Amino acid sequence: MADPVRSAASAAPGDVSLRVACLLSLIALLSACGEEPAQPSPPRPVMVQSIESAGEARVLRYSGRVEAAEGTQLAFQADGRITRFLVNDGERVERGQVLAELDDTDYRLQLREAEVALRTLEADVARRRGLRDEGILAPAAVEQAEAQLASARANRDAAARQVGFTRLQAPYNGVVARRLAAVGVVVPAGEPVLRMQDSDIVEVVVDVPERDAARLPFGPELTARGRVLALPGLQPMALIYREHATTPDEQSRTYRLALRGTPPAGANVLPGMAVQVAIEDPAPSTLAQGQHRVPVGAVLSDAEGQSVVWTVGEDNAAQPVAVRVHSVDGAHALVDATLQPSTRVVVAGARLLQAGQVVEPRTRR
Asked: Which pLDDT belongs to residue 41?
């Protein structure tokens, strides 16, 4: 007969191993249950640019910025202490609206004195004319009094103007850009106290490369369209030529081009906003059917050595498209490919993409 003690002792190691295995399995199960599901990776940001295709109008695109078309520094026409501003920075105002006021106490006292002097002289002239008509007073005495009366009227009008000069009015419809002085400060006549900008006209400035500047028709016939990047829902603004620089920037070798337009109704287009400007290229396209001009940075090689470009569709999914490179001209490559006009291609960030991957397309500003 087997020894019960020995049997129990011999079975103990196996039971311990079984219990340890069960415990480890339970821990692993609980750990798996506690893990959060993997979050989908966010879209990969890439830089994109539209291609140029045969048969479509060539468009030159530039990154510009909004500048205030009309900027005016406003000043009082009289000396005095500022008593109050009636507008704040960024507030829209109408022509003739009072923007600020000076202490007019002294000027009103001068006006009152001038009015008293005028009334006194008016009475004196009336009395002298009566005496002249009666033959008591010589005409020369009346003429002298009339000259003094005319001078008094001029003094009264000047004093009234001085009172009016203590109120600063908007010269046109616009926006108060900035207050340049504080309430309580004594300012001399002509010292700017407010800066105002015309809200009905905006100016867009772009830097045109030398190559494009050589063929653009700088002048009244030059037109463009501008899309405010911060307001993607708005229609592009129609822009017209205003002026251009005749000498290039020393560092970038670009020419400053200023365009002018009217912002869409209700749009708060502010100075400093980025604008994508499109100008139709006056030079005819030299592309043959099926050819495209793409940024040279968009042409890559796949694992088999085939030249490809990564396109971005309306759903922002990236797809590789095989191309055959004809030639490279500066920053662009001439290729044969099955591509739709104005297709967006990735010019930066394509090396780690996978077919069908959703990206976040960005354009250079």
From this structure: 72
Please give the model's pTM, rounded to 2 decimal places.
0.49
- Tally: H helices and E strands in the chain: 4, 24
pLDDT, tens only, 185-220? 999 999 999 998 877 788 999 999 888 888 899 999
The neighbour count for residue 136, using CB atoms within 10 Å, is: 9
The pLDDT value given to residue 38: 54
CATH for 104-165, options being 3.40.390, 1.10.10, 1.10.287, 3.40.30: 1.10.287
Q: Confirm if 204 and 229 have CB atoms less than 8 A apart.
A: no
Furthest C-alpha separation in the chain:
172
**DSSP3 helix / strand / coil % (the chain, rounded to 5):** 25, 35, 40
Domain 59-68+201-280 has CATH 2.40.30.170: yes
Find the helix packing angle between 105-133 and 139-164, rounded to 10°: 160
Token pair, residue 153, equals 């009227």
Q: What is the DSSP pairing of strand 359-362 with strand 44-50?
A: parallel
pLDDT band (50, 70, 90) for residue 267: confident
